[in-house]
Design a protein that fits this description.
The complex is a heterodimer of chains A (321) and B (71). With 321 residues, chain A is α/β, with parallel strands linked by helices. Helices cover 38% and strands 13% of the residues of chain A. Chain B has one helix spanning 23-29, and strands at 5-10, 13-18, 38-41, 44-46, 61-69. The chains are: A alpha/beta (321), B mainly beta (71).
């Protein structure tokens, strides 16, 4: 390539360079990446995700629990670029006058809050908690008042969802006007039943909440995604499936997206990392990597090797030839 | 006229009040009238618009809840 036009973006970094060009350009590359590259990319390079009537700019949804303090949480949320965050509904501490509130620590005008029903073990309790969450978000004027992350847990040891209670609560909340995002097991049929009960999204667990084990049964998640999203199997291509729970590392996020999930919801994987802010950044990059990797269409797996460099023109000894 | 005394459960604690007849008065008393706070009385949501009308009765179980960090 011999053109002498100035580079207008950081893209042609693979163009051959003379030694002199290399010296000047490597010095300016930092500037290129921090200004031109970022300027030329949209802030949210993955397209928005539609869930019910909501449009999520970021496909990474993050929780707000378990942080060391609010300052650390705020920085991690910022690094994650998430625009939807989950919160829980709990009793006020009546006589704790100087207790700092989560609500004071969040830039509420920039975030859509997704209230959860964590800690509920029956459909009736989950419906109560969902209504209380909606009431709070109405008071705050936050758009999150229209939806809920439904959790009906089976027991406190595994935190695995109670599929029957979840379906019951989902139907009840849909009737009450909620858009319901259902935390589910990775069971494909349970997921179909939740979709049929009116769930705006099914959110299968990769593995138990907070376990950090990633996607324990990838075939189950693949079948679940197929049943919900493949029109040939009764699915709808734009039906949102968000992998929720169990994510420990960025590669877990990437794998979820490579399996065809539309998004990932996680909390502990960031909040309990040694450096939550850096991990939030990594999770965001991992999601983008998985998203674009899936969309690109991966190569077929082969048992044996296939050379990347041409055989034609080789002039050295090749065994067996 | 002497104001009635009522005993109610608030967030699991048994509290006795004089001059607290409505949900709105309870919230004022607890300093929760100007912060987001959702209220349930006997497991039924009482929306903010109804706080000043909703009468409290002895033995009522009241839950006052807010949003906290969660996943």
């Amino acid at each position: 390539m011999s053109d002498t036009k100035p580079h207008t973006s950081a893209a042609p970094i693979n163009a051959p360079l003379t030694a002199q060009q290399h010296a000047t350009q490597s010095a300016s590359r930092v500037a290129n990446i921090s200004t031109e590259t970022i300027a030329n990319q949209s802030e949210f390079p993955t397209p928005p995700l539609h869930v019910g009537s909501f449009q999520l700019r970021s496909r990474l949804v993050v929780g707000t629990g378990k942080y060391k303090d609010f300052a650390q949480m705020r920085l991690a949320l910022q690094a994650s670029r998430a625009d939807v965050i989950t919160v829980a509904v709990r009793r006020e501490r009546l006589f704790d006058k100087d207790g700092h509130s989560l609500l004071d620590a969040l830039p509420l005008d920039q975030l859509t809050i997704l209230p959860n029903t964590a800690g509920c073990f029956s459909a009736a309790d989950a419906v109560r908690v969902a209504r209380l969450g909606r009431e709070l978000l109405e008071q705050l004027g936050n758009p999150g008042q229209r939806w809920v992350k439904l959790e009906v847990l089976g027991d406190k040891t595994t935190l695995l969802p109670d599929p029957i209670g979840t379906i019951e609560a989902c139907a009840e909340l849909v009737k009450d006007g909620f858009e319901v995002l259902c935390y589910s097991s990775d069971d494909p049929i349970a997921a179909v039943r939740l979709r049929d009960a009116g769930a705006s999204s099914v959110m299968p667990a990769g593995s138990p909440i907070g376990s950090g084990r990633g996607i324990a049964n990838r075939e189950a998640i693949m079948i679940l995604i197929d049943l919900l999203k493949n029109p040939a199997h009764g699915g709808r291509a734009d039906y949102p499936v968000i992998v929720d729970a169990g994510v420990g590392t960025p590669s877990d996020v990437t794998l979820a997206m490579e399996l065809g999930a539309d998004g990932v919801l996680l909390n502990t994987g960031i909040a309990h990392a040694a450096d939550p802010v850096q991990m939030a950044h990594a999770m965001r990059l991992a999601l983008e990597a998985g998203y674009f990797g899936y969309k690109s269409g991966r190569i077929a797996r082969k048992l044996l090797g296939t050379a990347s460099s041409p055989w034609s023109g080789t002039f050295t000894h090749i065994p067996g030839e | 006229m002497e104001q009635a005394q009522i005993q109610i459960q608030v967030n699991g604690e048994s509290l006795t009040y004089v001059g607290v007849d409505t949900v709105a008065q309870l919230l004022t008393h607890l300093g929760r009238d100007n912060v987001p706070c959702a209220v349930e009385v006997n497991q039924q949501l009482v929306p903010k618009a109804k706080h000043s009308q909703h009468q409290l009765h002895g033995g009522d179980r009241v839950e006052l809840v807010t949003l906290v960090g969660g996943g």
